[in-house]
Amino acid sequence: xxxxxxxxxxxxxxxxxxxxxxxxxxxxxxxxxxxxxxxxxxxxxxxxxxxxxxxxxxxxxxxxxxxxxxxxxxxxxxxxxxxxxxxxxxxxxxxxxxxxxxxxxxxxxxxxxxxxxxxxxxxxxxxxxxxxxxxxxxxxxxxxxxxxxxxxxxxxxxxxxxxxxxxxxxxxxxxxxxxxxxxxxxxxxxxxxxxxxxxxxxxxxxxxxxxxxxxxxxxxxxxxxxxxxxxxxxxxxxxxxxxxxxxxxxxxxxxxxxxxxxxxxxxxxxxxxxxxxxxxxxxxxxxxxx
Length: 290
Known about the structure:
alpha+beta; SH3 type barrels; Alpha-Beta Plaits; 3 domains; five-stranded antiparallel β-sheet; three-stranded antiparallel β-sheet; 49% helix
């Protein structure tokens, strides 16, 4: 009797355990290969996001079926019994397997609900906060993000599923806020007109525009032909530039200007551009900035 025929647990031998581990690796490799083939073929007939999401579901199904079959054929035990036995093999192994399946299940839910998709701009709360990142890939256990500094961040699917996630791409608009302090504001309407005019000039803003820009904004906000037959509409006024008075004292009036940008990835650039543009316009119009 050779060493690999020795029993390690119950009736499971070392040979069977090694065969099972090799089977799992092979199943994962086959699933990944199937994912790339299916994604490639679907990309010819549908959008990139849809192709990735559908191919991911097939990948999860292959992995789940493969693990079940390997457990039943190689280890000669049912899947539930295997999970139960893991608790006796060691806390470390059990915890690792539990985390793997928890992340895999979370990945399936994310793929089916489409709460996060490839190329979405998201921000995931937690320690540390990721900041605004773009989703590059959703794998079996991880979601791969890329931040604005081009750093790659791997987030376990279970972590993403449990924590608050802000998806800027679902509405495709994000607010940019700028604070100004003016010495005196004799004509508030004229001040508001300046803000509206400068916002209208910027290519990524969301005010009531005309022509091609209005058509693009309407598509982003969900205005469709079918909505004309219903009472439910998105209030476009919510995306107009807003001006709020924060405080008034002897030195002047503190104001907050909020402008909606339809390209979340451009929010920081938009803030800089709009601040420079507004500052120059205020100076030309004789508005004294404190």
